[in-house]
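Need a sequence for this fold. Nothing fancy.
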């Protein structure tokens, strides 16, 4: 059965798009790898009526709400191939299933590529965060660092003046 839309990505953007499509009585297949960017964080912030709630609970509640629409199909997996053209797309998932749809919606999100800094991965989402707007308030103006990855890093650090005290190491000396 061809779907009206195949949404690749089942996190917040994919679910928000799916909701609007389902309410328009479209048949929607959501392919979800379960790799939400904030899966390591214990609290989400910046969502009205969800401030401070566990991101996993927000995702579960959203999926429960989507599940009330009869035209939703949810597949846990990864899209590994997509081909076709207008009104005739084929998407293959990592388990070999082939799905047909009239449209493809890409909501694959962001994947953080962490530098090889000892202890960083273990602290990611717990005491090291990707977003000062999501987690900065809780720092209570404590110490803040920015991992400098390019010219934009100085600008990012300057945005943190209301969040905490900044430290801008000179990366040129550390590379010598």
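Here you go.
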């Amino acid at each position: 059965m061809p779907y009206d839309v195949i949404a690749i990505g089942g996190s917040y953007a994919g679910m928000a798009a799916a909701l609007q499509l389902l309410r328009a009585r479209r048949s929607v297949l959501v392919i979800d790898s379960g790799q939400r960017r904030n899966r390591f964080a214990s609290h989400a912030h910046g969502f009205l009526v969800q401030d401070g709630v566990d991101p996993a609970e927000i995702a579960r509640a959203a999926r429960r709400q989507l599940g009330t629409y009869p035209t939703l199909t949810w597949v846990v997996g990864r899209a590994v191939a997509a081909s076709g053209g207008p009104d005739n797309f084929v998407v293959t998932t990592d388990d070999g299933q082939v799905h047909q749809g009239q449209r493809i919606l890409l909501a694959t999100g962001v994947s953080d590529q962490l530098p090889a800094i000892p202890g960083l991965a273990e602290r990611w989402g717990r005491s090291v965060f990707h977003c000062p707007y999501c987690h900065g308030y809780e720092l209570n103006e404590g110490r803040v660092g920015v991992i400098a990855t390019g010219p934009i890093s100085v600008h990012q650090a300057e945005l943190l003046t209301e969040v905490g005290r900044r430290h801008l190491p000179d990366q040129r000396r550390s590379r010598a």
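For context: The domain at 120-168 is CATH 3.50.50.60 (FAD/NAD(P)-binding domain).
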